[in-house]
Amino acid sequence: MTRREFIKTSSVAGLCLTFNRYSATVEQNEENRMNTICEEPREIPIAIECDICVIGGSCTGVFAAVRAARLGAKVAVVEGNGFFGGVATAGLVNIWHSIYDTTGEKQIIAGLTTEVVERLKKRRAVLVRKPSAGSHFVLNTEELKIELDELVMEAGIRPFLHTRFVSPILKDGELTAIAVEDKSGRRAIKASYFVDATGDGDLIARMGLPSYKRDHLQPPTMCAIIRGLAEIKKNHPDFSLNQAVFDPKYPNALKKGFLWSARVPGAQDDTMVAGTRVFGVDCSDADQLTKAEIEGRRQVRAMCDILRKNFADDESVPLAALPARIGIRETRHARCLHQLTEIEALNGKRFPDAIANGTYRVDIHHADKPGLTFRYLDGTEVYVVPNEANKTGRWRDEVSEDPTFYQIPYRSLVPKGATNVLVAGRVVDADAGAYGAIRVMVNCNQTGEAAGVAAYLALDESKPVVEVDAKELRKTMQKQGAIII
Ligand SMILES: Cc1cc2nc3c(=O)[nH]c(=O)nc-3n(C[C@H](O)[C@H](O)[C@H](O)COP(=O)(O)OP(=O)(O)OC[C@H]3O[C@@H](n4cnc5c(N)ncnc54)[C@H](O)[C@@H]3O)c2cc1C
User: Has this prediction a pTM greater than 0.70?
Assistant: First the structure.
């Protein structure tokens, strides 16, 4: 019979800490998923006692930590990889979108996003592109890793790399510490406030805070750095990467999805290619994540073989680098005080507690059909499938004045029932359409900064996160360099 055990552990400080609401299970296999094993209670050392602990060290998490630390809090940041940056560095995704509204004239995003861009510019590690509306940035994400190290160290934050958050430690229902696993074993980090920037909502899920996953999750993509595409183009003037990899005349062609690519700044002929996609997997499930990693790499090889056999004159392997992790677009979201909706976003609804502004279009990578759908603030929409004509239309009637940007409210970062936990990045509460827009990094970055400032304000006034005064939050963010509208 299935046993579900709640485990008690105690710290060296003598605290008897109730471990979590989920049991430490060993999943035996797919058919026998509910088999469990009982872990012995044990004492674990406390690695640090701090004010604010950020879990997940992508730009979202690092920006949360930096904002809180610069305000004077003692901060720790916990990251599973050996470097910061999340999807940008571990997944190789190297584009930050426009920081202007859709007129291309009014700047709506600044803060740590532009600070990091300026720092990278000094190293020639960023290209500024100017499409019709506003600019976007192509980053050398290896340089970004080092820049994030420096940001963290300059702010006096205690970094925990190669460290996985394992479980929440609650006392009288309140989160007082987290257990992590690292090279030293299992340790605890005590803090007064926490930010869940894990992308997958690991903290909120393991605390039992309300969360949800959509039936159709946007599929993950294994990116790759492909070398020699300019050379191929030189020798084959009609060559199109987008056409080649999905062309059914090649037996190993990729299933129709979507492909985009961007040159790697500072590299001779290296291009970051995001063209694979693994359908029907939930990457917050350990077994499905493993499956997605292997299938993603298989697809990269298929793509490279098409190039090698049909276009590279010396049949050389064009693969220069694979990411440390598959790029995950979507898994779990927190149920927060407000769910941002697509209608609110695309109608440019203004919120009194707005902490972020954005213009990136609604961009849904379909889980149940090829291609993707874009919806814009001007009321238009496009369905794009590789090697097919775009299907254009309108998602709403024309209006006298189109909104030029949208906003994210603070309430979408405050999980229902939480007193000292905030979420940022992918985990925020948004419906499928709104999420399709706000999930990009220039937006996630702002949610990180807001969570860091809000956690600091809650700490400063010893109050629950829900009681953070929105006016005070916005004023403090503005003083720290954010554009608050
Ligand atoms: C293929 C692809 C292409 C994309 N293209 C773009 C693009 O061009 N431009 C753009 O702006 N956005 C793009 N996006 C979206 C964007 O990259 C992500 O939505 C965004 O980076 C999410 O940020 P995040 O901080 O929420 O999550 P993540 O970047 O996933 O960061 C979460 C971090 O938490 C860490 N973590 C997770 N669990 C734990 C744990 N238990 N313990 C310790 N650490 C943990 C992870 O290691 C990771 O570093 C793309 C996404 C994908 C997948």
Answer: yes
